[in-house]
Write a structure and sequence with these properties.
Layout: H1 5-9, E1 16-20, H2 25-36, E2 40-45, H3 48-56, E3 64-68, H4 74-88, E4 93-96, H5 112-140, E5 143-148, H6 161-181, E6 186-193, H7 199-207, H8 217-220, H9 232-243, E7 254-257
Parallel strand pairs: 1-2, 1-4, 2-3, 4-5, 5-6, 6-7
Helix pairs in contact: 2-9, 4-5, 5-6
Bound molecules: nicotinamide-adenine-dinucleotide.
Length: 264
Amino acid sequence: MGGDFMPDRIRLDGRVAVVTGAAGVIGSATAKRLAERGARIVAVDRQEQDLGAAIRDLPASAEALAISADVTAEDEVKKYVRTAIDRFGKIDVFYNNAGVEGDIAPLTDYSLESFRRVLDVNVVGVFLGLKHVLPVMLARNKGSIINTASIAGLIGAPDIAVYSASKHAVIGLTRSAAIECGKASVRVNCVCPGMIDSRMLSSIIEGRNPSNAPIPNEKIVERIPARRLGRASEVASIVAFLASDEASYVSGSAYTVDGGRTAG
Ligand SMILES: NC(=O)c1ccc[n+]([C@@H]2O[C@H](COP(=O)([O-])OP(=O)(O)OC[C@H]3O[C@@H](n4cnc5c(N)ncnc54)[C@H](O)[C@@H]3O)[C@@H](O)[C@H]2O)c1
């Protein structure tokens, strides 16, 4: 008994989970958590080498398949969906998570090329995933999709305006998909991580600090009520919950995992 009681109920035995951006910090932590809960994993990323490392980090008992694919290319999205079905026969959970931060610069210095690239990965990639995974779930009247948005999808953020716009779009796609699929018992939610201790956060902090003078940790976390950065495993926990039947009446929501950063 005690504190572990609730998490034990979040089981995904027999489920098949496709995770994009699975070679990254949040994607690999989440693939691991879903596998620990009993799911079989289809790990998708364009970084083949890091994908291998992420797969090796899964529990030994986990059945897993790695697929190298670019989420912005429709034929490659079709390929990862087809390969998942060929291997496991179904997709129960889709963590639509691949994303890029893009350039860190004010709008007036932002290149159109970078703008298009960020929207391509963060919005077109998420759209294509929904477009090709949803029919598989709708055919079985069952499934849970979790997109990765960000707190930058809820509030504005200097020097990452394009990233922020792309994540606002992910929330719009999530809510609209949830309405389109509600009757079929296919749930669509998103998570909005705040400042997670990760490569992407370091890239944003460094990009905003061209002087390279070290920034004290207290300064970085001063606007976070929890007064610390989040861990990728803390995002993984909420994804596992949303993936599971414990969240059977949850759809169209945007869950913040931000230590209270956007509460005020
Ligand atoms: N790290 C944070 O603090 C934070 C906060 C809020 C939201 N997020 C979001 O969480 C998600 C994961 O971020 P992360 O921190 O793990 O970053 P990360 O850079 O470690 O991982 C992102 C992964 O996506 C992959 N990827 C990028 N473009 C791709 C493409 N076109 N096709 C296939 N794969 C592609 C990368 O290879 C990488 O492995 C992203 O959507 C990010 O925007 C991160």
